[in-house]
Predict the 3D structure of the following.
Amino acid sequence: MSRHGSPEDRGSADSYYRRKFRPHYFVGGTYQSEEILEDQMTAQQIDEYRQGYWRNEDEGNFKDWG
């Protein structure tokens, strides 16, 4: 499993919570450190985000708000 706050982790979380596809990650802990946005990310980091997002979409693991 990837580090909490990593591009893959953020992609998976965005999908889980049904948020839009928005590549980003955190340098350290999620919401506890600097957020890096897509225009500052490498192609590899964007791909890691994409993998986390689409893997969760394929698994259908979404937050049940009910």
About this structure: The chain has one domain: 7-59. Residues 27 and 34 are 6 Å apart (CA to CA). DSSP finds two helices and two strands in the chain. The two ends are 28 Å apart (CA to CA).
